[in-house]
Amino acid sequence: MTQDMRHDLIALLPRLRRFARGLAGAADQADDLVQASVEKALRNLDGFTTGTRMDAWMFRIIRNTWIDTVRASRETVDYDAEAANTIIGSDGRTTTEARLHLAEVRRAMASLPEDQRAVLMLVCVEGLRYREVAEVLDIPEGTVMSRLSRARLALAEKLKDKPLRAEKG
Questions:
Q1: Which whole-number Å values give the CA distances from 134 to 128, 129, 163, in the listed order?
Q2: What is the model's pTM?
Q3: What torsion do the CA atoms of 10, 113, 117, 27 make, to the nearest 10 degrees?
Q4: 96-114, pLDDT tens digit by residue?
Q5: Closest of 42, 30, 120 to residue 66, by C-alpha
Q6: CB proximity list for 54: less than 8 A, separation 6 or greater
Q7: Residue 93 to residues 2, 81, 98, 139, 166: CA-CA distances in angstroms?
Q8: Burial of 118 (0-12, 13-18, 19+ CB in 10 A)
Q9: CA geometry: angle at 146 spanning 145 and 148, to 5°?
Q10: H helices present in the chain, as ranges
Q11: Which helix (H) or strand (E) is 36 found in, with range?
């Protein structure tokens, strides 16, 4: 592994973690997924083609590792320790409302089929182009567009009529 490749991989870690969090839902599972994926990438460096996008290669490894993990796992209950931590020195009401809304969005995203969730994360969170997502997921570009459309419609449906804060009554 060259020094440039090592630097590029380290620089990608926040994006890889964000993508993994979108797939896994919980921070601890996302961290485990990123770690396993980086280990696979390091063991299989000969599979990386110099001059191509390392982020697309790593997103594909993460997705495949996630699929393997889901297939091999049994049903478990998630606990998000990160969300349980308190924030000191911030506006409690604003923080609580933001966390509630974020939790609702995460639940809605988690309820999407994995293929839609992966496309949504890569396009809307990671900012990849449709063509790049098609390469990462090894699907036609038109499929990316249709999955993204269905994911956006499903999210909108799941989140409609959900107040951002509790109604006073």
A1: 10, 9, 35
A2: 0.56
A3: -50
A4: 777 777 788 888 888 899 8
A5: 30
A6: 5, 8, 9, 12, 48
A7: 48, 20, 8, 43, 11
A8: buried
A9: 65
A10: 3-24, 27-43, 54-72, 81-84, 92-110, 114-120, 130-137, 141-159
A11: helix 27-43
Helix and strand totals (H; E) in the chain? 8, 0
36-77 pLDDT, tens digit per residue, is 999 998 888 888 888 888 888 999 999 999 988 888 776 555
Residue indicated by tokens 């191509």: 52
Count of CB atoms situated within 10 Å of the CB of 120: 21
Which amino acid would we find at residue 80? D
* Cα separation, 165 vs 40, whole angstroms: 43
Burial of 169 (0-12, 13-18, 19+ CB in 10 A): exposed
Please report, in angstroms and rounded to a whole number, the separation of the first and last CA atoms in the chain: 62
| Average pLDDT over all residues of the chain | 82
% of the chain exceeding 70 in pLDDT: 83
Residue 167 has pLDDT above 50, yes or no: no
Q: Is the pLDDT of residue 144 over 90?
A: yes
